[in-house]
DNA sequence: ATTCACACAACAACCGTTATGGATATGTAC
DNA sequence: GTACATATCCATAACGGTTGTTGTGTGAAT
């Protein structure tokens, strides 16, 4: 029984949620046409209507993951160092939603690494994320909260740290509860702050 | 044509290498009975003889990944801080072999995260790795190269950093060539060293 | 004679994809 | 407004291909 025009947008939202539920339940490796269809209470005929091919489904799922992650409620970022901290905290699996999102995210790496095109897409995505972080770092440096040094380099390091912490927290949630993750992040940030400026010798010369 | 008894161990080694080649070529998602069999120039009959079920193959592949990673030629570890640095460098995808190994490793996370049992296995594996790192950190602290502080906490942070760097380097090899990875790691270690001791106030009181 | 190490063949289940057809909405002619 | 052509939305069913698994048979080793 087809829907009316007014219901069409609602149906699109239903499809999104079905895709999300499948991803959350079985990861990216378990993302199949039929799984989404049955999760939707429909058949593959509907799915092929929205996604002519499997790759379309995968790309859509990747976009969905990106969108869902981006539209997650963010901390109200302050300025300088606290903005950096907030941005990094927002990545970590501190809530149930963030955990689900991160789990899907990590599980997508298998698919992404196997496909050069998707791999490039991911590389660009991470590069953009690093750029945003770099700007925050540069701002924290200008406010004097962070010692001098290539902001891009510091951002790359911070992103690595958070990324790795995500993975460890996903595999061992009891070992890395939210407060421990925040603790470790604060350790990292404290180390960054305490670092003597390498490029900028003013503090030494004065 | 069956083999003789003397060839049996050789055959087991052949199986290992076939599994490894399949993993290297198609990742963990492409690990199938038939793929390994054809890679071996044999049929599935042989495979089921060595691995009665798929799960056995997967578990074996996970173990193989662990073994191959562990038996990779390691840097001759010095003492104290240089030992910590060597251990962390050994994880990074700095060589072709290490890149292949790490790629397989990351691709296995999809499978592992979808299966609670495998997930636990990984958690234990990482915990053991953190423990070894913790001992190295503690040694570096005793030699005075690293400020005081919970060595387990420092090890967890360092492991996170390296893990995340691995992921980023795999997706953007041109952005993270070997020397840049080493650079970033050294930045991290420098920050660790420069950190004033939190628990131990001696330096301040003197 | 029994066990082992395989080849070979087949199975049911699942995958992505395609074709067919029917129900509903939309547009157009009168 | 009514009548008809067209397009959209979706169920149903089937296709060939691949998967994990099982069973049978056969030659060599013990």
Account of the protein in words:
- Two copies of one chain form a homodimer.
- Chain A is mainly α and 206 residues long.
- Chain A folds into two domains: 5-68, Arc Repressor Mutant, subunit A, CATH 1.10.10; 73-197, Tetracycline Repressor, domain 2.
- Helices cover 73% and strands 0% of the residues of chain A.
- The first copy, chain A, has ten helices and no strands.
- At the A-B interface, helix 6, helix 7, helix 8 and helix 9 of A face helix 6, helix 7, helix 8 and helix 9 of B.
- Chain A binds a DNA duplex (30 and 30 nucleotides) through helix 3.
- Chains A, B: This is TetR family transcriptional regulator.
- Chains A, B: Residues 32-51 bind DNA.
- Chains A, B: Keywords: DNA-binding, Repressor, Transcription, Transcription regulation.
- Chains A, B: Pfam families: TetR_C_6, TetR_N.
- Chains A, B: It comes from Streptomyces macrolidinus.
Give the percentage of residues in beta strands of chain A: under 5%
Superfamily at the CATH H level of the largest domain in chain A?
Tetracycline Repressor, domain 2
Q: Main interface pair?
A: A-B, 49 and 50 residues
Q: Quickly count the domains of chain A.
A: 2
Radius of gyration of chain A: 21 Å
**Helix/strand structural class of chain A:** mainly alpha
> Between the first and last Cα atoms of chain A, what is the distance in angstroms?
79 Å
* Oligomer state of the chains in this structure: homodimer
Global geometry of chain A: elongated
Report the total helices of chain A. Answer: 10
């Amino acid at each position: 029984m087809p829907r009316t025009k007014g219901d069409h947008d609602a149906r699109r939202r239903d499809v999104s949620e079905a895709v999300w539920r499948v991803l959350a339940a079985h990861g990216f490796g378990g993302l199949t046409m039929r799984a989404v269809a049955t999760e939707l209470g429909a058949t593959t005929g509907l799915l092929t209507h929205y996604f002519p091919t499997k790759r379309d489904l995968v790309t859509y799922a990747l976009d969905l993951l990106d969108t869902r992650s981006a539209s997650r409620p963010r901390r109200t970022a302050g300025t300088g160092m606290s903005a950096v901290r907030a941005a990094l905290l927002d990545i970590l699996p501190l809530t149930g939603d963030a955990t689900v999102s991160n789990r899907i995210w990590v599980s997508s790496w298998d698919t992404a690494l196997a496909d050069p095109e998707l791999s490039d897409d991911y590389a660009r995505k991470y590069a953009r994320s690093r750029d945003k972080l770099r700007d925050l770092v540069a701002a924290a440096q200008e406010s004097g909260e962070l010692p001098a040094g290539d902001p891009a380099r510091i951002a790359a390091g911070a992103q690595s740290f958070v990324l790795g912490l995500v993975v460890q927290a996903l595999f061992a949630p009891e070992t890395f509860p939210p407060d421990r993750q925040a603790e470790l992040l604060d350790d990292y940030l404290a180390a960054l702050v305490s670092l003597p400026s390498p490029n900028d010798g003013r503090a030494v010369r004065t």
